[in-house]
Amino acid sequence: MKSAFRVLKRPLVSEKTAAFAEANKYVFEVYPGTDKKEIAKAVEATFKVTVTGVNIINTKGKVKASRVKRGEVTKSPDVKKAIVTLKAGDKIELI
Questions:
Q1: Burial zone of 15 (CB within 10 Å; 0-12 exposed, 13-18 middle, 19+ buried)
Q2: For residue 93, what pLDDT is reported?
Q3: What is the pLDDT of residue 90?
Q4: Cα separations (Å) of 53 from 60, 84, 95?
Q5: What are phi and psi of 92, to 5 degrees?
Q6: What are the residue ranges of helices labelled H in the chain?
Q7: How far apart are CA 8 and CA 81, in angstroms?
Q8: Is the CA virtual torsion 67, 68, 70, 75 positive or negative?
Q9: Which of 12, 21, 36, 73 satisfies CB 3.0 to 4.6 Å to 27 for a cystine?
Q10: Are 46 and 11 in contact (CB under 8 A)?
Q11: How far apart, in Å, are the Cα atoms of 93 and each of 30, 40, 49, 66?
Q12: Are 83 and 20 in contact (CB under 8 A)?
């Protein structure tokens, strides 16, 4: 099993993820190459909760034209996110 620090990058906190937290779902940015089982084990080990489900979203980075050099294109990095559903009654304090 991979260490939790090699699976989870950081929790994502925004207005949308705060609404997910009310439904007992939490969003984490994870490293590429990790699967659902590794993510569930890492969250359970780190936060001492029970995970009932994991959904994964791969988002592509945006491509933008540079404002400094004409013709140059920059790209933001691709991001892999995991939406983790916890057992009823379990909670993660992120803030």
A1: exposed
A2: 87
A3: 92
A4: 23, 6, 23
A5: -115, 125
A6: 15-22, 36-47
A7: 9
A8: negative
A9: 12
A10: no
A11: 18, 17, 11, 39
A12: yes
**What's the confidence (pLDDT) of residue 7?**
94
pLDDT in tens, the chain (95 residues): 688 889 999 999 999 999 999 999 999 999 999 999 999 999 999 999 999 999 999 999 999 998 888 889 999 999 999 999 999 999 998 76
Which residue has 């992120």 as its token pair?
94
- Quote the pLDDT of residue 78: 96
* Cα distance between residue 24 and residue 20, in whole Å: 7
> How far is CA 15 from each of CA 20, 21, 29, rounded to the nearest angstrom?
9, 10, 16
C-alpha to C-alpha distance for 55 and 62, rounded to whole angstroms: 22
